[in-house]
Amino acid sequence: MEAASITETASAPPPARKAGDVLNAYALPLLLFGALVAQFIYEPTATLDNVKTGLSNGMVWALIALGYTLVYGIVELINFAHGEVFMIGAFVSLSLWQTFGVTDQTSLVLIVVSIIVFLACSMFASASLNVLIERAAYRPLRNAPKLAPLITAIGMSFILQNVGLLWRPTPDQVPDLIGSHAKYFTIFDVDVLHSDVFAVVITVPLLMGLLWFVNNTKHGKAMRATAQDPDAARLMGIDVDRTISLTFLLGGAMAGAAGLIYALYNLTVRFNMGFTAGLIAFTAAVMGGIGNLKGAVIGGLIIGVIQAISDGGNFLGLRLGEAWTPAVVFGILILVMVFRPQGLFGEETREG
């Protein structure tokens, strides 16, 4: 079994791989790495700064991408409402800070306590919302043609986006509780900011905790069994409906955490932020290999670095910029899908 995957594979030794298969498996990762090395030689300091920014942004995309890949690994459904669940998490955290009057002038101890407590609240709110969506919208369509839950997911996305529009119709500023643009230290002429460290400090334990839960607990084993064969899982006494609800709960919790991190990192939230973030995170999940947990994390980091380098405006002499970033990201995704349809680190999943 691949420990990074939500699905299990047979324990028999894999057949010997041909040279063409090996090249097909590693050509694209090597090509991306080679392009990064070439950019580093061309602009070393700017490239290091972009990689630093991309990795911290990629942490957020990775958290959201895990929700997509968890749900797809279990029920083979693309939960298009997941981006809006992330948006609700950001809104909940901002509302709590405003309600309790926490600002950048509040004492450091209270700021730290508020971040920890409200992180838990945001994760709980988004997790509960995701479970409610599964119970109300997806579970009744469990045995329907796959197009029905797909359209329902898109409908839920629009419904939640309009909830966000009613809640906060205009972009809102988030109090700069972590001094996001302040410098911690400088390494190789690259400034490491408070926001960069904050994203890593919050995200890494969550990612490691989720991977440990899926790979080492009884409920995680039930999730992997359900992903492999839900009918056989039922015969073995696993409550499949409860396991699916747990999957949505975990995915929603990761999205809620990402919402709080995003709010403090970018200091602005708006009702349509979930659409863009969800699309980027879904791209990361597909690029890494939908259904593969570690693949989703690595895909998020890759997307973050690609975005940062493109936003930097100069890739090996090509004048890019933010206007070109979506084309660059999806162009690379298309290349991955053409040559590696299962993603960079994906596996074959069970047939629906």
Number of strands: 6
Annotation field: number of helices: 12
Strand order of the largest sheet: 1-4
Terminal Cα span: 20 Å
What overall geometry do the principal axes of the alpha carbons give?
A: globular
Oligomer: single chain
What integer value in Å does the Rg equal? 20 Å
Can you summarize the main beta sheet? 2 strands, antiparallel
Q: What percent of the residues sit in helical stretches (DSSP H or I)?
A: 55-70%
Mean pLDDT: 84
Give the low-confidence spans. 348-352
Structural class of the helices, strands and pairings? mainly alpha
- Helix/strand order, N-terminal first: HHHHHEEEHHHHEHHEEH
Report strand %.
under 5%
Core attributes:
352 residues, mainly alpha, two-stranded antiparallel ribbon, 12 helices, 69% helix, 5% strand, globular, disordered C terminus
Protein model, in words:
- With 352 residues, this protein is mainly alpha-helical.
- The chain has a domain at 62-285.
- It is 69% helix and 5% strand.
- The strands form 3 sheets. A two-stranded antiparallel ribbon has the order 1-4. Strands 2-3 form a two-stranded antiparallel ribbon. A two-stranded antiparallel ribbon has the order 5-6.
- Helix 2 packs parallel to helix 6 (194-216).
Write a compact overview of the structure shown:
This protein is mainly alpha-helical and 352 residues long.
Secondary-structure blueprint:
Elements: H1 19-42, H2 44-75, H3 82-99, H4 108-138, H5 147-167, E1 172-173, E2 183-187, E3 190-193, H6 194-216, H7 218-228, H8 230-235, H9 240-266, E4 268-269, H10 273-288, H11 293-312, E5 314-315, E6 318-319, H12 325-339
Antiparallel strand pairs: 1-4, 2-3, 5-6
